[in-house]
């Protein structure tokens, strides 16, 4: 945060300082089957982001109580088997309940005797006894051989990215495990990841097992190879090279996988050109902003993304941390500093200072002699102080002294 703040300050000094939101599925889950002598074992992996769960404040914490249930109905015998669990989730700050990247994860396991089942998955809010999400799917044992896994490697473990075959577009590194019976376990596998605009080539860096088991720990669901070698090939950290989009993965012209790279928590101020440019105008010159605006069209997002590339602290990766930080600040400003006079936060003095410098070290609020409210913002590391005054009493604080 400190480096990003200092960089934005420098950028401001040097410059004289929608995409529509996609409809998200109600419940993120994936399921896999391992064949056994008695039939099979179904591993059902569920992930529900915190922003889709109801939290209630209890003392100084925010608490959610939910249950996840999985019901399978045998399509031949109509026999019903069930699995489920209850979970209490506690976080310290309200902002954590809105974070799309924080999620409740569950691993449910069921023994299967036959080939086809009708499954019902239900997530219930136990604090108000209402269903948060419910979905029916058909599980066919014959088609459950996983051809690939999206994973995140942490502490020498493979953590499953169970977001419906989606890699989050973030600064984190994600890898791909691809199954191929056509490639020798002692060989190197090559793949092409193809989108509408990009084709990228990758080679496997090591070989994983041919069979897996699933375990859950405090960090998520762990994918454990049961054999040291096999027909799954590991492609490490491919997310570093992949921009947002849908990808088909091919090996020797044969499709072996398909997934999406998606910026789940993309700032909403970056969702349309008007708010994106308005935020940029706070730190950039009118000449530069007008030049970008004149070239905006259907590809406005790509043009804006290209502008930010020259300010990318990690140019070897596709995710731009500075761009993300900047527009997260813009989002905060739009939420907290828009006021009753129909002035959006990006037009306010407090909003402009926040976008440039980030959150102050300390804020003092007090009343002046005439009853008007004052806010004093302190930036300790930058040795800056800003005095704002609500002159009209409508929540629009004017900068009166820096």
How would you characterize this protein structure?
- With 402 residues, the chain is of the alpha+beta class.
- It folds into 3 domains: 2-21 and 266-401, no CATH class; 25-145, Immunoglobulin-like, CATH 2.60.40; 148-158 and 165-208 and 220-263, Immunoglobulin-like (Sandwich), CATH 2.60.40.
- The protein has helices spanning 2-14, 94-97, 273-280, 286-295, 300-309, 321-336, 349-357; strands spanning 28-36, 39-49, 56-58, 61-74, 80-91, 103-112, 116-125, 130-140, 148-154, 157-160, 166-168, 175-179, 190-194, 199-203, 206-208, 212-217, 220-225, 232-235, 245-251, 254-262, 362-367, 373-379, 384-390, 397-401.
- The strands form 5 sheets. It has a 7-stranded antiparallel sheet, with no helix packed on it.
- A hairpin with a 4-residue loop joins strand 13 and strand 14 (199-203).
- Residues 1-23 have low confidence and may be disordered.
Overall radius of gyration: 25 Å
Sheet with the most strands, sense and barrel status = 7 strands, antiparallel
Strand content: 35-45%
> What is the share of helical residues?
10-25%
User: Which structural class should the secondary elements be placed in?
Assistant: alpha+beta
The separation of the N and C termini measures 23 Å
Major β-sheet strand ordering = 15-18-12-9-10-17-16
- Which residue ranges are poorly predicted, with pLDDT under 50 across at least 5 consecutive positions? 1-23
Shape: globular
Question: How many structural units, i.e. domains?
Answer: 3
Q: What integer is the average pLDDT?
A: 84
Number of helices: 7
Give the tally of β-strands. 24
